[in-house]
Amino acid sequence: xxxxxxxxxxxxxxxxxxxxxxxxxxxxxxxxxxxxxxxxxxxxxxxxxxxxxxxxxxxxxxxxxxxxxxxxxxxxxxxxxxxxxxxxxxxxxxxxxxxxxxxxxxxxxxxxxxxxxxxxxxxxxxxxxxxxxxxxxxxxxxxxxxxxxxxxxxxxxxxxxxxxxxxxxxxxxxxxxxxxxxxxxxxxxxxxxxxxxxxxxxxxxxxxxxxxxxxxxxxxxxxxxxxxxxxxxxxxxxxxxxxxxxxxxxxxxxxxxxxxxxxxxxxxxxxxxxxxxxxxxxxxxxxxxxxxxxxxxxxxxxxxxxxxxxxxxxxxxxxxxxxxxxxxxxxxxxxxxxxxxxxxxxxxxxxxxxxxxxxxxxxxxxxxxxxxxxxxxxxxxxxxxxxxxxxxxxxxxxxxxxxxxxxxxxxxxxxxxxxxxxxxxxxxxxxxxxxxxxxxxxxxxxxxxxxxxxxxxxxxxxxxxxxxxxxxxxxxxxxxxxxxxxxxxxxxxxxxxxxxxxxxxxxxxxxxxxxxxxxxxxxxxxxxxxxxxxxxxxxxxxxxxxxxxxxxxxxxxxxxxxxxxxxx
Length: 568
Description:
CATH topology of the domain at 2-125 and 502-566: Rossmann fold
CATH architecture of the domain at 2-125 and 502-566: 3-Layer(aba) Sandwich
Structural class: alpha/beta
Strand content: 5-15%
Number of helices: 11
Shape: elongated
C-alpha cells in the first residue's frame, strides 16, 4: 500500500516562492475550497508532476513554472510503502529529480527516462493513467474510464488486477521467440555451410592426394639444391677460416714491433732534444764574450775549446741518431706489412660472417622444406578421413541443436498462446468481471441510480434500465455520467485493495459537488465518501464553502498579491 503523508510545492502555477504544504494523512476528510483561479486544484498538478513528471491537466509542462518567478519550481512528496520511507523531489529551472529511500538517495547514474521507470515499475508500481483512475476523479480535464479507448481500458484493468506481469512476460517471450527464430535461421545457415565444407573438403582432399607426389618431388629437388649450396658455403667458410689462421701467424710479432716503434720514437725525441741543447750552447759561446751572470769576460781559448767539444758531441749523437732512424724505418716497414695482413684478415672475417648468415638461412629453409614434405606425406587418405569425420560430427551436433531449438519453438508458441490477451489474462479477467460488475451496481444503487451496468471481457458496457431498455454511457445526462464515473472510481479502489495492486490511502475528488449532481445524489455520495474515509484520506476540491461543516479539515486557498496561498 502506498501511504501518502505530505505534499509541498513552490513556484508551481500560481504559487510563489514560499512552500505550500498539505498533510495528506492527518485527517480522514479534507475540503479544499476557494474561488476559481485561487489555486485549489494545483494539488492535482503537483501530485502528478512529482510522481510522473507531467501535469495532471492538459497544459504544457513548462507552463507549470510560475510565470512571475520563472524559476525554482519544486515539488516534494513523502510516502511509505511497507517499512520503507520515500521522499521524491522534482523541479524545473533548475532540473531536479531525486528519489530517497529511508533517507538515502537512490542511484542517479541512470538517464532521466530510466530513473522514472525505476520509480514507476519498482517503487510505486503504477503508471500515470492507472493512478489517475484510482486516485483522482472529477476534474474537467480528466478523462474518465468510460471515455477511454478499449485498449487503454484494458491497461487500467490489467494494472488493477496486477496482470501487467503477464504483459511483461509476453514482451520477454516475444524477444525469446525472435531470438529462437534468429538462432534457427543461423543454425540452418551453419548446416548448409558445413555440408558445403564436407563436399568441398572431399573434392579438395582428392585433388590434393593426386598432387602430393608431384609436389613432394619438386620440394625434394629444391631441398637437394639447397643442401648442395650449403655444402659449397661450408667449404668457402672453412677455406676462409684457414686463411685467417694462416695470416694471424704472420702477425704474431705485431705487439713486439709496436712496442719497439714506440720505444724508438721516444728515444729519438730524447736525442733530438739533446742535440738542440748542445746547439744552443754553441750559439751561446759564439754570441757572448762575457758571462751574462757575473759579467766577467770569457777567455777566447775556453770558448773555442768548448765550442769544439760541443760540436764533437753533436756529431757523435747525430751518427747514433742516423743508426736509430734506420732501425725505426725497418720496424715501421714491418708494421705496415702487419697492418696490410690485418686488413686481409678483416676482409676474410666479413666474408665469414656473410657465409655464416647465409648458411643459417639455408638451415632454416631446409627445416621448412623438410616440414612441408612431412606435412604433405601426412596428408594422405587417413588424414582426409579424419577431416571429413570431424565435419560430419559437427553436422550431427548442428542437427541436434536444431532439434532442440525446434522443441523450444513449440514451447514458446504454446507459452505465447497462454500469454496473449485471450489467454491467462482473459481467464483471470473473466473471474473478476462478475465482482467488478457487482461492485459497480452496488455503488450506483448507493447513489440512487438503479440500472443494470455490466462490463464484458472487452470492457464494453451494457446498461439496462429496470424495464430492460438498453442504454450507453454516452446516452446519459452529465449528472448520470458522473454517478457512473464515481461508481467506477470506488470500484477500482475496492478491486485494487482486494488485489493489493494500486492500493493507496489517498483519494482526491475535484469539483464532484460543483457539477451535475443533485442534492440527493450529493447526500448519497457523502455517505459513500464517509464509508471510504474509514480507511482512506479523502481530499475534496470545491468552491462551495457551505459544505465546510461536513468535513473535519478545511483548507481555503486565496490569491494574495497574485500568488496562491492557504489562508491562515
